[in-house]
Each structure stands twice: as structure tokens, then as C-alpha cells.
Amino acid sequence: MANVLLSEAEKTFITHGVEEDFRVDGRSNIDYRPMELETGIVSHASGSARLRLANTDILVGIKTEIDTPYQEKHDEGKIEFFIDCSANATPEFEGRGGEELALEISNTLQKAYQSSKAFQLKNLCILPRQQCWKLYVDILILECGGNLFDAVSLAVKAALFNTRVPKVQAALMDGGTVDLTLSDDPYDCERLQIDSVPLLVTICKIGEHCVVDPSAEEEACSSASLVVGVSNHNGKCGITNIRTNGAGSLHIDTVSRSIELGISAGTCLDKELMRVLNVDERLNSESTNKEVYGFLK
Fold it and tell me: 285: part of which helix (H) or strand (E)?
């Protein structure tokens, strides 16, 4: 995370605000900051999205290719995450400073998506033991303003919603070779089933209280935080994975409250994200010229 230099007086001010359920920017402890979301902005990708959460700026591009399934998971597709931390995001990312954080986020996403309650990799299988789709999820952190785990997971789900996979028919020929037939129509594609794709929710402990969507300044006041993967599977919310950050410890009661808060926040986030994505898709289908906002304008 971005290191923010704060005096003891500033840390005390932030901590006292959290105790009163009134944070520095006017939010309560369970409120998220406003977000800006755009999809379909990278022309050479199968799907893309850009999300800005306050000063945190994330760009995601997804590419697809046909690959061979893993031997132990012969009827599933593949998904891999690659994260690049721009040196302009924060001075700590200069040189190789962002590699450790990028590895932490990518590993957390990988574990969340491997859960049986999360992304259905079986939908990416073309022919068991022979051919499957492989998704390359490239994530670029353009600016770091706190709460990277949540912002990245939101941007990834939006990009997966925007992803289209070409329709392909496969047949096993004599000799064990596979014959693949792709449609000549470039618009003859299938969309991914992302209803159960998980979101990551960071619960940050400040003093004796927990908050969601911590800013960079609030992260500097926290000794420990919990990242909860929340997935909506068949109408029921479940936990895909949990990880802790920071050098401090969490009491078992705090962990229990944090998980409950994470599930509640994740459910609301997922519902609102899907609503916005569906509205955006409908508006784009009705309009021939899409207006591009943000840094790509």
C-alpha cells in the first residue's frame, strides 16, 4: 500500500473520528467512496474496464486464447492474473517496489477465483482433456489512493462482464487430434457467466472499530486489516477466501464482526455493480456513438 506520512496528531484525529462513526471525508464507517466505472475502452482486448475509487485508478484488460486443460482439472478452463504497478502511482512503486504488492493481490485473486463458490471455470472448457479457454487478466494500477484489493476486484469483475468469447465447436478426430471450428462472424460470441464472481472487501481496524473502504491515510492508522472474498452463489452469499494484512493481530470477536461486515458490504457492492453494468450495457446498445470519459478521452 502507499505509505502516507502522518503526524501523531493526525492519526489521533482520524482514530477519534472513527470512534464517533464520522470519518475525515464525512463518511460513516460502513460507507464507500464514490466510484467511476467505464467498460470496453481497450479496443484490442476481449474485455476491459477502468475503475476510479477516489484517488485509486485501475485499468483491466482481458485477452483469451485456446489452451490445454490441467491434467487434474481436465474439464475446466484457466484464468491467470498479472498485475503491474505503475511507477507514477506512488513513489514506493519506483523500480521494483510494487512487485511484492502486485504478487499479494494476484495471489489473493487467484485463490478467490479457484473457490468452488466463485467463478465457474467449467464454462470455459471446450473439450474435456483436450481444449479450453484461458483468460489472461492484465491489471494496471495507475494511481494508488488506498483500498487496492477492493478496487482491483471490482474492476476485474466489470472487465469480465464486458468480455466476449468467440463461439467455437470442437470435435475429436481420429488419432486424438482436435478439430476446432470458429464462426466467421466476429460478433458471434458468448458472454461469460459472472454472477458468482467474487469481490474482495477490505475491513480495516482503526482503534477498536472497523471500517470499509479505507483511504490511504486510514490505512496508515491501522495495525491490521482483513480481506474477505465474497461470492453470490445461487442467491446465497459465501466466503471464498480470507487473508490478513498488517503486523498487528485481530481478536476472534473482531474477526467475526469483520467477516459479517465484509459479507454485508460485498453483497451491496455486487448488487450495485451489476445494476450499473446492466444499465451501461443497455445505454451503449441503444447508442451508436459511445462517449469516452476519463484519461482515455
Answer: helix 252-286
